[in-house]
Amino acid sequence: MTVGGRNNERAALSSSAGTTLKSGIMKPWTTYMVEATGDYRREMFLEEHIGGPLYAFQKEIPKLPIPDIQDTIERFLPTALPLVKSAEEKVALKEACEAFPEQAELLQQRLTARRNGEFANSSWLQKWWNEAGYLQVSYFFGFVDDPTVDVVRGSAPNVQRAAAMLFATAEFRKLVVTGQLPCERVGKKKTPLCSTAYKYMFNACRIPRLDHDSYRIYDPSRNTHCIVARKGHFFSMELVDSETGNPLSVYELERMLQQCIAMADAIPSSRPKLGVLTSGNRDDWARDRVALLESGGAAMENALERLQSGAILVNLDDESPVSRQECGELFWTGGLGSGPNRWFDKSIQIMVANNGKAGLIAEHSMMDGMPVINYANYITKMTYARARRMSVVSGPTGSASVEDIFASALGRMDPTMVESLEAKAWKAFHKLITDHTLHAQSFQGYGSAFIKKSGFPPDAYVQMAMQLATYRLFGEQVGTYEATQVRPFLHGRTEVTRSVSTASEAFIKAMGLYPKFDEADPNVAKEKLALLQRATKTHSAYTGKAAKAQGVDRHLLGLAMMVREGEKAPALFSDPAFIRSKRWRSSTSQLSHPRFNLWGYGEVVPDGVGLAYAILPNSCVFNITALRSTGWTDKLSEHLEGALLEMRRVVETRATSSPKSKL
Questions:
Q1: What is the mean pLDDT of residues 529-538?
Q2: Alpha helix segments (H runs only) across 383-520
């Protein structure tokens, strides 16, 4: 996913002409809160109620298609063949693929009936995917510095940066909740994208439950506050004018942020920090939440509601990271220092460190990355200096107050019980943090400018570098996931672009498990170059199909879900190579943005790696995560650098050995 400056956001920012946002009316909802359970259809009425350009195309956006079975199998087989372990496995895989169209015919009919019947006004996939696809998943962004933050005069850098980002958040929020944000469009044809995820962006929070988590979204017209976390304690403060919905001035936001810091400093260090309870196993947190409510009664219920209904959560972390590595560790989980200063169920949290370094973490269950990138793109345009210029002081300053959310409830509860819950959660969180590691790498050798000049699509080229690097790390190719959005379809989320193919296999095996340094031989270089060209072309073609919802993984999942109890499933579903091919030991995703320093997420299987990356004009940034015990993150970083340098030698050998063009 590559993002630069977006025209719709630029227009949205300029639409706030002068000092206030004048367009759009915030219509009160008919209910204070809506509890979502994973089925987008249940909240579609809010799109009708809100209206505006954001939801103008929802009824015109086509439904998610169901691919042809034969096409799916033909697309699938080349992605699994490189992963077979023996000649017998290869034969069995081919036989399972040959038999699949007939064995899955009834399943295809059932899936088609689901699409055209029960889910005729939605996506046949979304309910399954929302309920099962994003448990315990979040992702973070790290932003470039704001050069206008004044570290010499005025308030502290963290207060200035947070105030500016809250000011911009309030503007963007108004555009969203009034429906005035322009619908995102892509491609030369300006194809509109589904906007349904925006409903879950603000005034929203995931709720832990033993059976199945839910997701609460609150009426933004009645919830004009935001939440601030400092030293593991949570405060509520107003974000917007309750009458107009416009942002409070930066000066007022700064005053209240400073008050939050002062109040946090005055709280005894022994007071429980409830945020850590949200970091662990969902069932444990569900039980702990019930225990809090039973012990704290109405006061605890009101406190949780206040936090959950806040427009957004700002974490003022009491740390000062400098390097990309330090920022990555802080923004990913908060680490042992600032982990309790999070409420991991909130839809969006902005992190701001003492020195003004800033990032964002987003909860993934109902909302994918692209809408959040749209929001992040908007708020990172807003510098502190610009926010000051745009601010209007309306009414007496100092009139809005700050509330310590949990003070009243904790004061009435059995401290021993609360401390026991906190200690148990802290033990699990400590293990989670110490068990995992992150490595942030900034490869300065070259970037998209060189790759494009050499005639390659940047994403496919870097994907082949990652294929080579993980091949050398694991000693074999492994199932590799690249996220591709399918929001041109109603309630579409993502499809998988499979990076493993017979073409990528041929390329990486020609390059070898170890560098051969044989590119000086023109014949060798020519062969490797041809294999790289074929591999990148194959990858780009697959990406194009996946973007049109013609990948294989979502279709195969849908067919598997159609197998009824007691029925014999198609042989392919139990084939070892099939299972291996969809076990994502390498989970990759690209996000390239000029104002993002890094981004990332965790590995999705214990013996795998998370590999987030950005391709900038003159550099490539990688964020690698894995279990600490594997020792893989540093090694993979070295392999990535080596792969990119070797591939450059292959490409440059062609350039030096070919006659120069006269054009």
A1: 98
A2: 384-390, 407-411, 415-435, 448-453, 458-474, 502-511
